[in-house]
Specification:
Layout: H1 4-8, H2 18-27, E1 29-33, E2 38-40, E3 48-53, E4 56-62, E5 65-72, E6 77-78, H3 80-85, E7 92-95, E8 99-104, H4 106-115, H5 117-140, E9 146-150, H6 155-166, E10 171-175, E11 191-194, E12 198-200, H7 205-211, E13 222-228, H8 232-243, E14 248-252, H9 278-292, E15 295-298, E16 302-307, E17 313-317, E18 322-330, E19 334-336, E20 352-354, E21 368-372, H10 376-385, E22 391-395, H11 407-414, E23 419-422, E24 425-431, E25 438-444, E26 450-456, E27 459-462, E28 466-468, E29 510-512, H12 524-544
Parallel strand pairs: 9-10, 13-14, 13-18, 14-15, 18-29, 20-27, 21-22, 21-27, 22-23
Antiparallel strand pairs: 1-8, 2-7, 3-6, 3-8, 4-5, 4-7, 9-11, 11-12, 16-17, 17-18, 19-28, 24-25, 25-26
Length: 547
């Protein structure tokens, strides 16, 4: 415990009377840290700290790199800035050596300020000085690590931009079509420059990821759990598995969050009354998993799954790399259903897109945008793009949105003046030379008569549902007629002596969670719930094995 004599040696407490010293020492938490241990992480609820012994590093993620900004030593206080601003912790604090810290909550900081005018003046002056330092830091910090030159119609450029955006990596995009001819040669594909001096030749998503220091290969040859997919279900399983001591590897093809990660705002997720974007939710989960030791291999996917003689599984990644796992969790999600209309495939990626990510906002400013679909994904995209596009038109096959979209989204669409809904309407074809220029639709009137209409269109986003992509899995893995994976009591081919666990497939030790599972509820919260539940069943399965 902390005693008054220890606080008396700290400059900030030197002005207090003995009774006040006794009161504050009784309220102080005595926090002891080993070297490398975190006192607080960026984004957490802040506290007021005073260094009693050792050294502590002030660490900030700057453009994806952990940067040491300052070292606190004996007698220094910190943490007052976010408390007085009413913000979460702005930085992380890590023990540089073995350290001891006095911790006070926000109310005790306010009490200290009100108790002594001298203490108040010192705290507020220190806060002012630190805010000036923050101002200089912001002005001197570059705005992005990545410079990307390309066109919005180049598929590689679009995939790289989507990857950077989904992984919250700051980048500057320069449209090659807008670069003056005197400054650029003939365009032959995207160019990427990392940290101002490293140029990625013939860039792909994976080569850019590797240049940024993002891990794309597994560290080890063996894991307790390998999770295929890092959408809501996979991330939840990764967080809960690692937090409970399992050696976890998540394998993700593009970016953490899956399709949910592209949602501009999820407003019906528990605990976020003002909503949260899909990429923000995914980033939080990814950081949480990393803190517990979960590993993720980005830009990779599982190619095949084979049983081993000892009951484990061999998991082969694209490129031929293999790892073994006691348990495999399938959380690959689903893929957007293709729209069968003339010209759609030819113009895909050149104005025609499946799904709608936030980084497309810059491409639709002042333009005419069409959305196909009446579900929540289409509704979220319409509300988001309405802030940028001149006109957003939603095309739905039915009479409206009431049967397929959440009421809160319908209400938001109703108040957007530049969103129009076209019921009983389908696309016949998409037209354009190098990119989308027009779409042709047919609309069915109440009397059954069809009307054909041609619309000028700059962008077409298609969200007409999704299908399971499970053809790569072993043939004896039980699926329903649509390819969704059966688990638990829905299995018809279970041959084991025990009953299958609720999220276990007919292959013992292979579990499934999220949208790709037969009978799942296609919601973010449901995926998170299934992913966390799966880990409970994984523990029960491992307890029965002798690996």
């Amino acid at each position: 415990m902390i005693v008054a004599d220890e606080l008396r040696e700290i400059p900030i407490f030197a002005c207090l009377e003995e009774a006040d010293l006794q009161r504050f020492s009784a309220r102080a938490a005595d926090v002891r840290l080993e070297e490398g241990e975190w006192l607080i992480r960026e984004g957490e609820v802040p506290s007021f700290f005073i260094s009693l012994d050792g050294e502590l590093r002030l660490v900030k993620d700057v453009l994806g790199k952990s940067t040491e900004l300052y070292v606190y030593k004996h007698g220094e206080f910190f943490g007052e800035v976010p408390i007085l601003l009413g913000a979460p912790a702005l930085v992380s604090i890590q023990a540089k050596t073995r350290a001891r810290v006095a911790r006070f909550d926000a109310q005790q900081l306010f009490d200290l300020i009100q108790t002594s005018a001298a203490c108040s003046a010192l705290i507020l002056q220190t806060m002012t000085d630190r805010l000036m330092t923050v101002q200089r830091f912001v002005s001197e910090t570059p705005s992005s690590r990545v410079l990307l030159v390309g066109t919005q119609y180049d598929s590689d450029c679009r995939e790289i931009r989507a990857f950077l955006s989904a992984n919250r990596i700051p980048y500057q995009w320069v449209d090659a079509e807008q670069v003056p001819k005197c400054m650029a040669g003939q365009y032959d594909g995207p160019s990427v420059v990392i940290d101002g001096n490293y140029c990625v030749e013939e860039p792909t998503v994976r080569s850019v990821a590797e240049a940024l220091g993002i891990r794309t290969t597994p560290r080890y040859e063996s894991y307790d759990v390998v999770i295929a997919g890092a959408g809501p279900a996979g991330l939840a399983a990764g967080v809960y598995g690692a937090s409970e001591g399992l050696k976890v590897l998540m394998v993700e093809r593009s970016a953490a969050g899956g399709q949910a990660g592209t949602s501009s705002r999820i407003e019906n997720y528990l605990g976020f009354p003002n909503g949260i974007s899909g990429d923000d939710l995914s980033e939080r989960a990814l950081k949480q998993g990393a803190r517990f030791g979960a590993e993720i291999a980005m830009t990779r996917y599982v190619e095949s799954l084979e049983p081993l003689a000892d009951g484990r599984y061999c998991v082969q990644l694209d490129g031929g790399q293999r790892v073994s796992a006691c348990v495999v969790l399938l959380a690959t999600g689903v893929e957007w259903r293709m729209l069968q209309a003339e010209g759609i495939t030819r113009l895909q990626g050149r104005g025609v897109l499946y799904g709608a990510s936030r980084n497309e906002a810059s491409n639709v400013i002042g333009k005419r945008v069409f959305l196909v679909g009446g579900g929540n994904s289409a509704g979220q995209a319409a509300v988001f793009f309405a802030n940028y596009a001149a006109q957003v038109t939603i095309l739905v096959r039915g009479k409206g949105l009431e049967l397929t979209m959440s009421q809160y989204l319908i209400e938001q669409i109703d108040v957007k003046k530049n969103i129009e809904i076209k019921p009983y309407t389908e696309i016949i074809r998409a037209e354009g030379e190098d990119h989308l220029e027009r779409i042709v639709t047919k609309t069915r009137a109440a009397d059954g008569q069809l009307t054909e209409t041609t619309w000028d269109a700059d962008a077409l986003f298609i969200m007409i549902g999704a299908d399971a992509s499970t053809a790569w899995l072993p043939r004896n893995l039980e699926r329903d007629d649509a390819g969704y994976i059966r688990t638990g009591r829905d299995l018809a081919t279970w041959t084991g002596e025990r009953e299958p666990f609720p999220l276990e497939t007919n292959l013992p030790g292979v579990f499934c969670a999220g949208d790709v599972r037969h009978g799942s509820i296609k919601r973010v919260s449901s995926g998170v719930g299934e992913g966390s539940m799966a880990i409970a069943f994984v523990h029960q399965y491992l307890a029965l094995q002798d690996f």
